[in-house]
Amino acid sequence: MTKTRHxxxxxxxxxxxxxxxxxxxxFAVTAELNNNEPFRVYTVAAEKRPIRARNGLVVIPDYAIAxxxxxxxxxxxxxxxxxRVMKDADIVQWIKNHAAEKELTLSVCTGALVLAAAGLxxxxxxxxxxxxxxxxxxxLPGGQVTAEKRFVDLxxxxxxxxxxxxxxxxxxxxxxxxxxEAARRTAVYMEYGDWRT
Length: 197
Hints:
Layout: E1 5-10, H1 17-33, E2 39-45, E3 51-52, E4 58-59, E5 63-64, E6 73-76, H2 82-85, H3 89-101, E7 104-108, H4 111-117, E8 125-126, H5 133-139, E9 144-145, E10 151-153, E11 157-160, H6 165-178, H7 180-190
Parallel strand pairs: 1-2, 1-6, 2-5, 6-7, 7-11, 8-9
Antiparallel strand pairs: 3-4, 10-11
Helix pairs in contact: 1-6, 1-7, 6-7
């Protein structure tokens, strides 16, 4: 039997919509196509209250961080709200604790700034949205920030470029955990680009 992994997607005010919705769709579709066994996907936030994402979309998280199921995989999306999140000591510590104990920590776009604030990218290669590469590099004086890759897989930590790159990263994670055919089937269902071949 396939292990069911809990996938938590962090929400916060001014989160970029596709940064969280893209990975949510990838992991949820993969679960749906595989008898709901591989993944249980849910959203978390500092508090269980409506979150106003970029451009006004309002989303209600499934859980507050304090009461959420323990995730095996954590997705930290980006958006202008990351500037506040990276200064929130409680959230940053929660992410740091997760990364030390659990299977995977993923960032999309400027979610990499939050991972950097948690000390997860020190001296390592990483990527983020093309408009924020210099900001991330300034946070990682010993690291290498690249604009050449859609995502950078460091093993237990994976960063992706901006917005739609989170879909590529999530499909990569599906392929890594469940095999190429599972990733291909998800991409075919989603009608998503080169991953369909």
